[in-house]
Structures are given as structure tokens and as C-alpha cells.
Amino acid sequence: MNIRNHLRRFAGPAVAALALSLATALAPTASAAAGGDAATLAHANIGKSAGTCADTPTTNSLGGSQFETSCSGNGGNGEFWCADFAEWVWQNSGFYTGGLTAAAGSFYVYGENNGTLHTSASYVPQPGDAVVYDYSGGGVADHVGIVTSVDSSGDVITANGDWNGISGSSESTFARSSSVVQVTIPASERATGDYVGAAEMTISGYISPVASGSGSTPPPVDSGNPYSPNAVCGSGYGVIDSHGLTGATVYLLYDDASGDNCVVTLATTPTSAKSMNATLAVQGGASTSNPGTFTYYAGPVTEYAPSSCVEWGGSYNGSSWTSGWSHCGGGSSAPPPSGNNIYTPTQVCGSGYGVIDSHALTGATVYLLYNGSTGDNCVTTLATDASSAESMNATLAVQGGSSASNPGTFTYYAGPVVEYAPNSCVEWGGSYNGSSWTSSWSHCGNGTVTAPPGATNPYTPTQVCGSGYSVVDTHALSGATIYLLFNSSTGDNCVATMATDPASAESMNATLAVQGGSSASNPGTFTYYAGPVAEYAPSSCVEWGGAYEGSSWTSGWSHC
């Protein structure tokens, strides 16, 4: 490679003045999307030489005879031009380049001046970033390249000007014989302080370009931050939550294709570099942060968490916030997202909730969940194929108590609506784009959750059927038990089929028929139990039964 120590010189005043005059003429509204343009432009010039002065003459991809002063900066001859190439890419992608020179280290100083120097080991490089190697202070470094992409394995792909020149030659000979070369930084070597074997140098930091400026620091951006959370985190991410700080906003994003969460803290009206951070932790897993002094944003920080709760937050200039464990993925005990909806009911309602019932609408499903630790019920309506915002609602009422709903126009889900109901029946339902449904009073609790003997199900048959009921008979299925209960005060019978060791939603049913009278059943896919089904039969025989995952049973006429 033979590039070490070739890039320490500064450009002369005339070149610096030219760069500054060009930079200040740039439109001040260049957006973060140009970062992708910078990556594309850098990649388009792989294989190009210094220009028409090179041993293998080429023009750059925009038709120019050189990159900045790659062919003329050394007294009319070729100069060490890795910084020329990086500056040319940023400038022609609409970014501010004030303060940049032909010295690789000027990019490090640029990052310090503009608040976009990333030195945290957890920082995820972004397309368009500059990567500086072996910075020794005073604007002196050995090399600078441009990040063109980060692949699915985390490897960082870079484009590097003035690479592979003739070793041990003069500056002009090295410049004429070198070219733009693609170099891959392995994921295990991409952090600041890592030695990169392919480059034979150590990473000193990554620098993000800024949208506008004059002099050595950018002016206030009157229209607010030119970056968006989606642009910072990258293609495929969507915002799922946010929290306002004093002077900034923390955003949580999710990429359903990869299962990754991303957090970024964006200054509201950036005027100068401030102390900022973005944090993300996976419950029972890894965590990451990006503390530093930045002008526009801290982060992005990413973690894989398709089935886990996350704790996310950030800080800005002394104002900070961290969430509780929230936005929990589906895991093994919750139904998966329907259609292309990236959310699950347990993710919407939160940690500790389990699905106990559901009802299909046209284009959506309404879910009823319960938290045995808190006694809270939760209802959410999830679109099956979330393609656009539609009229939706989720409703929940406690018999003899309060009620809640969440009508509105949403893309993914309505709700969650939550009510405390450990000892009461609930009426729950929802609507989606004109299709609606509301249950009768059901799922009546009876206080403290106590599991049946030998079972891990957090519910009891008396909790499911409600206060006043007592178990009068049972029948074991493979993986579940059917319970028959009677309420002597009302004359009602009740049947519930309860999973012994609930791990996922399974096909279940509970049935009850009165001899010479009515009957009821509750077939469906449930995690904890099917039912309750109740019928008035103080003086009649009943036929009761149930099913669980292919195992079924029905009594004869009995309990007359």
C-alpha cells in the first residue's frame, strides 16, 4: 500500500482560499440525504487516477482533469491527494468544506470545529463519512478515506484516493502512480483505536460532513436541523417513538427487515457543538452509546432486538432522559406480526403482558392482553397489512368502572388502552376502516393470580370464570386441563380450558351445553386459556368439554 507519512503537508494559502470560496457558495439547505450522494460519488471514482497528469491518465467521474489540486498542488506537479479526493467528494455532494486542505488531518480538525467527530468505539460509520487514520495532532494524519457503505456483516467499505503508489518514490511520482482504491475495514476492526490490517494504520475517528457553513464553524441553521432520524439511521428504519429534551429530541427507530433498533439524538436548532449522547440497551443483552461533542446529532447507535425489550435515551447540553424497558419484541410467547405489520401485541402493550384473547376484523385483529403482576388489561388493534394510515380504534371497559379508547388514524396499530381489572369483567373491542367488534362482559378476574397445582399458567379457573365460581369437575387433556365451575348464587355453569405450560398461542376451545337448552363455545388460538363460556343450568344436566392442540374431550350429560 505504501502510503504512510505521505499525507502530512498542508495546502498553500491560495488553494485553501479557493476551497473556502467554493464552500461558502454552496446552498445552505443541503440535507443529510447528500450523504448517500457522497458515498455514490466516491464509489463511482474507484479505479480513477490523480487525473490527466497520471501515468495512467483519467478524468474524474464528473469530467474534471483532477481531484481538487491532485495534479498541480505540488508546485505544478502531482501531490499526495487522498485529502484532495475526499474534499472533492464532499464539495461535489453539496457539503460544506471550509477549513479542509490537502492535509488528511484537516478532516479531523473539521470534525472538531463542526461537532461531527465520532471517536466512540460504538459509533456505526455512515455512508459519506470520512475516516481518518493515525492522527497525531496539529492537523497531521497519515490518510483519509470516504465510507461508501456498511454491509450486512458490519464491514465498512471505503474509497481511498492516492492509494498503491510506487513505494519509496517522490511525492509527484507516488501521486502519478496511485489511484482510488476500494478498501474493506472488517467489522472487528472498524472502531476508533482499532488497527486496520488492510490499511496498516489505526483509525483515529470518523467525521460526518455538515450541510452549510462559513469560516471554520457552521452558522445557525435557521430552518432547524438539516438531518432527519431516518437519514441518520439509514434506509429501512422507521421512527417508532421519540422523547423531547431541552434543545433536542431523542428518536427510537426500528428496521423490521433486519430486526435492528436505532437511537439518535438530534439538536432542534443547532448553532454550535454541544455535549450530546444517544444510548440503547437490550434487556438481558448488549448496550451501546455515543457520547461526544456534536453540532447536529449524537449516534446512530444500533442493537439487534427483534424479540427483546429495549431501554433507550439520550442527552443534550445537560438535559437527559432514559426510557424504562419498553418496545418489547414478540419473542416466543407472543403471536408474530400479521401480514407486513412490524409490531406484535406484546410489543405494543409492553413487558409483562400476555395475549389472552383476540378477534379478527376485516384487515386487522383486536387483541386483549393481561399483566398478572399488575392486574392490568390491555387492548390493541393491529392492522394486518400496514400500507397506509386508516381509521382505527381500540376500546376497553371495566364492568362497574372506568373505560378507555384510542380512536384515530394510524398505520400500524390503535392503542394501547389499559385498565386495572384484576377482580372485574371487561368489555373489549376495536375497529378498523369500517369493520368493528365489541365483546360481551368476559374475562372476569378474581384477584391474586395463583397457578393451578403443577402448572406454570399464571391464571386459575376461578380467575377466568370470575368471583363466586367454584370448580366442580376437571378433565385432563394432553397439554391442558378443562375445568367445569358452578356459581351457586346465580345458577350459572362455566367452562375454561387452560394450558398447563403455555409457551405460545395454540388452537384451543371450551364448550358447554345445557340439556334441552342453549350451548356455547370459544374456539380460537390462545396462549393461556379458552373461554370462559357460561350457561344458566341450576336444574339441568350439562355437557362440557374442550380441546387443546388436537387433543379434545366432551363429557356425557352430567352434573344435573
Automatic annotation (TrEMBL):
The protein's name is CHAP domain-containing protein
Keyword Signal among UniProt keywords: yes
Where does the record locate the signal sequence feature?
1-32
Q: What are the top taxonomic ranks of the organism?
A: Bacteria, Bacillati, Actinomycetota, Actinomycetes, Catenulisporales
Q: Which SUPFAM superfamilies match?
A: Cysteine proteinases
Q: Which UniProt keywords apply?
A: Signal
**Superkingdom as given in the UniProt entry:** Bacteria
Keyword hit for Ion transport: no
Domain Peptidase C51 residues, every copy: 57-197
